[in-house]
Amino acid sequence: MTMRLGFLIFLLSLCSCKEPSKTTVKSEEQKKVGKELNGLNWMLGKWKREDTGELALWSKKEDTFFGGMMVTLNEEEKAVIQEVLSLEGRKDGIYFSSKERGQTNRRKAEYKMSNKDFDAPKFTNQNTDYPTHISYMRIGKNKIKVEEMGQSGQGNSYYFIREM
């Protein structure tokens, strides 16, 4: 188990490398944005989805960037990356992005934080079909409720429990 966890952490390091952004900030602004992003530090760590057992792994890569991934274990209990995630602080706000496995020809989907509630951040992108809104609600120290909503109000929600 320890070896698998080490492998997952290694994969997280490799897969969560960020793409350069034109709006990435530097110096004093970077410190300000990093301080704001630190409001989401509670998301860092290993989380297990209650209904599927899928793992969400988040780590802080730098002051303005958190890398993450969604992982499942196959029959041989080897990690299979399902989605690469990131949280990035920029001059104009905090962005959540995701890119699902197999989306080689598509760019990652980016969602801008549309509220200032760091215990229940909501990320929005009106240009996507589904979801247009993704929110993470902190429930105590060890539980997260994730909601995905479309433009017409359809959606789903699920829960993650902290693993470590």
Structural write-up:
- It is a single chain.
- The chain starts with a helix and ends with a strand.
- It contains two helices and ten strands.
- It is globular, with a radius of gyration of 15 Å.
- Strand 8 (133-139) and strand 9 form a beta hairpin.
- It has a ten-stranded antiparallel beta barrel with strand order 1-2-3-4-5-6-7-8-9-10.
- With 164 residues, it is α+β, with helices and mostly antiparallel strands.
- It has a single domain (2-162), classed as Lipocalin (Beta Barrel).
Q: What is the gist of this entry?
A:
Helices cover 15% and strands 44% of the residues.
Report the order of strands and helices: HHEEEEEEEEEE
- For the CA atoms, what is the radius of gyration? 15 Å
Report strand order across the widest sheet. Answer: 1-2-3-4-5-6-7-8-9-10
Oligomer: single chain
List segments where confidence is low: pLDDT < 50 over at least 5 consecutive residues: 10-17
Main sheet summary:
10 strands, antiparallel, barrel
Q: How many β strands by DSSP?
A: 10
How many separate helices? Answer: 2
How does CATH name the architecture? Beta Barrel
Structural class: alpha+beta
Beta-strand percent range: 35-45%
Query: What is the CATH C level class, in words?
Result: Mainly Beta
Distance between the termini: 13 Å
Helical content stands at: 10-25%
CATH topology (level 3) name: Lipocalin
How would you sum up the global shape? globular
Mean pLDDT: 85
Domain count: the total is 1
